[in-house]
């Protein structure tokens, strides 16, 4: 049985951070990889796969991608949710990897071929104050980035998520890592009024230094109420942002109506969404400009492609999530999809560490500000078991945030 799934392995490793990977092998030895990493809740997806999905996969026809997706989504009865959708995504991407290898082509060719030469990527500049931030922007430009996300500390706030606490780390970049290897989540603090006063002054300084042309992005990380987000969007209009991301938590999609009525700052949302339903009102009412989902957390290429096609009807473009917690397998999947679809917008890039890249050998490249998935057959990523053995799983938590009176806040 050439096409039958003969082996399904759930691989957990921590080369500087935790990753969960699904590896499927066909009867004739074709190997497919899928990313199942859910930052800070990794073992839940590993168990979902190993205990509940792997037994269903053995013997199935690896060529039947859509059918397998529908089977996993509907047969569980309990639909949606980050754990379920990350598990389905891993299976889906592994099957696309296998199908492209069977076809003898890089995956983007199977998805319709390249719609562009490369994928514009944005990097993460941050600083504890404005001079440090300007320096970080400069370093990113030196590394080839042509679009930059800008995050800074806020006066009166002790620690702000998304701002590197050390000025230098891997590759001389100003990096931050979303999850930390700590027994309890690190507690950060927050003050929305101080933030709303401060951020326009930061963008004013960045524009004054780097001019009007450089695409600049900002992540509100779900912290604002709708009226606060509307106010921020308005106050940032003079600085012509590429996007304002996650301005509200958006479980309530209607919140974006209020923001949209007040500002022309483009809005991006969706890194924590996991199905097309999360975007339904946002797309139909044209409340957003960019879809932020990742292949890894939105049910794979099969599902995210449908969302991208739906978005295209409203001239909404993609800006797929690409932090370090999307593994090189998940990133490769995003790049193949982004290269193939017409309504690609931009791709987030937080470069992986050298240890991560020892475990995941990827053909992806980043040159002149543009990402490309490479020309290897399939996804173009190999998993090195020997390298992975040196990096066992270590518990890690994302941080949490409290207001100054002690109230737990969105972060
Ligand atoms: C981003 C993000 C990330 C997430 C992280 C959570 O825009 O890249 O907001 O930093 O917080 O991926 O796991
Ligand atoms: Mg974000």
From TrEMBL:
Mandelate racemase/muconate lactonizing enzyme C-terminal domain span: 130-266
SMART domains referenced in this protein's UniProt entry, alphabetically: MR_MLE
GO molecular function, one term: mannonate dehydratase activity
GO biological process, one term: amino acid catabolic process
Superkingdom, natural source: Bacteria
Pfam families associated with the record: MR_MLE_C, MR_MLE_N
InterPro entries listed in its UniProt record: D-mannonate_dehydratase-like, DgoD-like, Enolase-like_C_sf, Enolase-like_N, Enolase_C-like, Mandel_Rmase/mucon_lact_enz_CS, Mandelate_racemase_C, Mandelate_racemase_N_dom
PANTHER family the UniProt entry points to: D-GALACTONATE DEHYDRATASE-RELATED, STARVATION-SENSING PROTEIN RSPA
NCBIfam families listed in its UniProt record: ManoateDhtManD (NF043051), PRK15072.1 (NF011654)
Name this polypeptide is given: Starvation-sensing protein RspA
